[in-house]
Amino acid sequence: MSDDLRDLYQDLILDHGKHPRNFCVLEGATNEGLGHNPLCGDKITLYVMIDEGVISNIAFQGSGCAISVASASMMTEMLKGKTTEEAEKIFAYMHNSCTGQPTDETGIDEDAIDRIKALAGVRDYPIRVKCATLAWHTLQAALKNEKKASTERS
C-alpha cells in the first residue's frame, strides 16, 4: 500500500473517530445489541431498525478508542439501506479483511470495500483487530436477537 493511500485511510479513521456518524439512540429500533471488548474497555450499544429485511436505520452509542468508534461509525453508514443478507456478506468481508483471511467481494459495493480497506490495516496489529471488529460482532448479535457480543473469543 502506498504511503499516500495509507495516509488517506488514517485520515478517514481519525475523522470518523472524532466525528462519528449516526451516534445517537435510535428510538423504535427493532433490534439492539450490546458489545464489549474487555481487553481495552470499548463498549457499544447498537440500534438497528429492520423493515421487511432491510436495514432502514442504524445508530450506535458508546465509548472506546478511535478505531472502535470509527469502525462503528463507518459500519452504520455502510449498512443503511442494505438487506440483512447484504449486511452478513459485508460482515464476513470485514472480518476476513481484518484477520487476514481470504475475502470475497461478490455483491459488496465499492464504497463498502474502500471503507473496509481503511480499517483492514489493523491486521498488522493483532490487539487492534478486536477494536475494529467490535461493532461488527455487535451487529451480528443484534441481527440474531442475542443482545450481547464480546470480543473475548473472536
Name the CATH class: Alpha Beta
CATH 2nd-level architecture: Alpha-Beta Complex
Write down the CATH topology.
Sufe protein. Chain: A
Which bin fits the share of residues in helices? Answer: 40-55%
Number of E strands: 4
Beta-strand share of residues: 15-25%
Tell me the structural class: alpha+beta
Strand order of the largest sheet: 3-2-1-4
Low-confidence stretches: none
Output the helix-strand order.
Answer: HEEEHHHHE
Distance between the amino and carboxyl termini: 26 Å
Task: Describe the model.
This protein is α+β, with helices and mostly antiparallel strands and 154 residues long. The chain is 49% helix and 19% strand. The chain contains 5 helices and 4 strands. The chain has a 4-stranded mixed β-sheet. Strand 1 and strand 2 form a beta hairpin. The radius of gyration is 14 Å and the shape is globular. The two termini are 26 Å apart. The mean pLDDT is 90.
Blueprint (SSEs and pairs):
Elements: H1 3-18, E1 31-37, E2 42-51, E3 54-63, H2 66-79, H3 84-99, H4 110-120, H5 126-143, E4 148-150
Parallel strand pairs: 1-4
Antiparallel strand pairs: 1-2, 2-3
Helix pairs in contact: 1-2, 1-4, 2-4, 2-5, 3-4, 3-5
Short characterization:
By secondary structure, the protein is an alpha+beta fold. It contains five helices and four strands; from the N terminus they run αβββααααβ.
Features:
4-stranded mixed sheet, alpha+beta, 19% strand, 154 residues, Sufe protein. Chain: A
